[in-house]
Structures are given as C-alpha cells and as structure tokens.
Amino acid sequence: MAFILSFLLSLFGVWFFGRIAKKFEIVDKPDGVLKPHGREVPYLGGLGIFTGLLPFLWKDSPVLLASSLALAIGLLDDLFSLSPFFRLIVEFGISLLLIWRFVGFYNVWYSAFWMLLVVILINAVNMMDGMDGLCSSLVAISSFFFFLLVQGSFFQELSLALLGASLGYLVFNFPPAKIFMGDAGSYLIAVVLSILFISQNRHPSFNSLVSFLFLLWIFLLDFFASVLRRYKSKKPIFFGDKDHMYDKLSRQFGVRKSLFIMSLIHSLFCGFSLGAMNNTLTSVISLCISGFFSYILVKGLNLTGYD
C-alpha cells in the first residue's frame, strides 16, 4: 500500500505541479552549455515527489522537518539561485537535525562522520540530476534495496514510498523529459536517503555501514571524481560541468543507453549490500571488488579529467 499510494500521489503531484510551473513560467531554460536541452522544461517535479512522500514523512516530526527544509532550500535555489555558502549552511543544519534525531552527540567522531556524509550526499545526488530519467532511476533502485535491508516498519514504508514517488516522477522524466525535479527534488530525495541510511546505523557497525554504503556508492563515486576533476583543473568545486560519469557515457551511447548502463552499474553495486550485511569477510571482499571496479570506471571514462 505504501508503494501504490506514493506512486499514485507522486504521479498526480508531478502532473499538477508541472501545469503550475508552465502557467507561471517556472522553467529551466536551455543555455547550450550546462543545460543543452533544446526547449524550456518546467521545474517543480520535486513538489510532486514530496506529495508522494508526505503521508509517510508526516509520521515523524524531525524527519518531516528535515525533508521540508531540504525541499524549501532547493526550491528557493531553483527560483532565485542562492549562494553556495548559504545552501551549505542549511545543509549542515539539516545534517545536525538528523544526527540529533537518530544518533545523538555522545560520540563526537561518529557524529562528525554523519554530519559530513549527509552534506556530501545532498550534493552528490544533486550532481547526479543532470540527465533525463537518471536520478529518479538510481534512487528507485536504492530504495528497493533499502526496503530489503532496513529494520522497522516506518523505515520499510518510507523506502517503499521513496520507490513509488521516484517511479511516479520517472513517468514524466523518462527521456525526453517533460519535467525536471530541480534542486528541490534532488535535495529532498537525498535527505530521505540519508534518513534511511543513518537510521539503520545509530551505533558504529562495520558490516552495516559498508552494506548500506553500497546503496549510495555510485552517487559518492561520481561526487568525489567530480571534486577531484575540478580541483586538478583549478575550477571552483561548486561550478558545474558536463564531464560526469553519465555525461561521458551519453556522448558515446546516447541518453537512453547511458541510462540503462548507469542503472546496471548501480544495481551491481547495490547487489554487494546483500552479502555484506552480516559477514565481515564478505564485506571486505565486496569493498575490494567495488574499489577495483570503481578504479576501472574512473580510469576508463577519465572521470577525474575533462574530455
């Protein structure tokens, strides 16, 4: 029921807010560089995703507050282009709220780890929202594996709700996209992914951390490769480019084939999570295999350099 309800609500919400965006001309205009699409595409898809998640976020006040803050700061950035520094402050505020809700501040180093990881994940998911259908497809895959692994009925429902909301949005975002989620949507789903991750790791556990980390591996891999690429080229870290993993693949294979390849790669990484949960040896072996495969991707696609 969680999946069906969130899917239907998201489907309606994305359609509804898409019409609102068109009416008020809240659109993403092509610029031929970072936005190469050939026509104006409405934003506000993130509000449609939020519509699908709201009945489940409502059950936990701090979770609802963190998600709403993420949606709001992303929406304001879509509308007014906020400064990166201000967005970063809000992102750290959201991470502190989640730490207070799920981990506490008894272990300073563990709390610092989560604070940094949540902020990184918010920006990593945002970076992945650069090709039609990609971000929602990857999030849907992660959500499915979260459902298989999480403990607690609320978090199982939330993972199913995220799966349904992502697929409801994907109906309109599948290439060629009819609507974009914008920063509002990418920030929102990144925070929900963070909630699912941090809620299952309230106490340090190597196997659990590694297992759930695989569900976000592709986001983090592309993020760190992008940071290193921009650092090596002496470009601002917050300045976008068109040399992400999906950009390089799409130039070779086209958008739809690249979407399939990225989804397949992500599914493979997520698959490692199933064997890593309760076995330290399997966790270490999975980390080594994933690390080697990641190295091949980075070198083969020149992810730390510009084409």
Can you give a write-up of this model?
By secondary structure, this protein is mainly α. The chain has helices spanning 2-23, 45-57, 61-80, 84-102, 108-128, 134-149, 153-173, 182-199, 206-213, 217-232, 245-253, 255-276, 280-300; strands at 27-28, 41-42. It has one domain. The radius of gyration is 18 Å and the shape is globular.
Mean pLDDT: 95
Percent range for helical residues? over 70%
**Contiguous runs where pLDDT drops below 50 for at least 5 residues:** none
Large-scale geometry? globular
Strand composition percent: under 5%
- Kindly name the structural category: mainly alpha
Counting DSSP H or I runs of 4 or more residues, the number of helices is 13
Give the domain tally. 1
Descriptive keywords:
13 helices; two-stranded antiparallel sheet; globular; 307 residues; mainly alpha
Provide a brief overview of the structure.
With 307 residues, the chain is mainly α.
